[in-house]
Amino acid sequence: MVRLALVASLVALISGCAGNTATTDRQDAAVSALSAAEWSQVQQEKLQVVLDGTPYVLTEVSGGWLIRIAEKDTFNPHRPELLLPAALGNIGQITRHLAQDPDVAVMVVGIATGQYKLKSKEQVSHERAQSVASIFRLNRVPGHRLKTLGVSHGEDIDGRLGVALLVVPEQELHHRVSKDHTQVVAMLTRR
Q1: Which residues neighbour 78 within 8 Å (Cβ) at sequence distance 6 or greater?
Q2: What is the CATH number of the domain that holds 160?
Q3: What's the domain range around 49?
Q4: What is the pLDDT of residues 80-108, one digit of tens each?
Q5: Could you say which residues form the signal peptide (predicted)?
């Protein structure tokens, strides 16, 4: 008899918890959607402060922010994969800021659409991404919060760009990396 009462109360408890799970899931989804909007707003304010006084442009994209960095005055015209010393301060300032925020992840997108004497566009774009990513690594941004991508093909890519930093929540970075890169390339259109 005691066993029957114990089993009945256990079943009632489990069924009660199962009924609350759907409600909890809906509440969690609403909170995460609100959190995404709040995250975006907070990041916009922080990034605008960090980018103040730099020639870089901040653009809102789906689920994050894109920092557009022009090729001119950032990369060496004779060795197009190398950063100019004048650009190191501004990029270092951005990386120090992003390194301090554990909820932020960055995809460094190297862009090369021009003609280069000694290297292919593909090689230059990957090396540009790696050279900027190395500054993030020097500021101790862990690998799970940092990804690189080289882009050299695309009719609509803004040819003035040398690199772009896609700033997203950490969990979103892994989602974007696992998907097709055409979404990232679409963000690089001329504005």
Answers
A1: none
A2: 3.30.1330.60
A3: 38-186
A4: 889 999 999 999 999 999 999 998 999 99
A5: 1-20
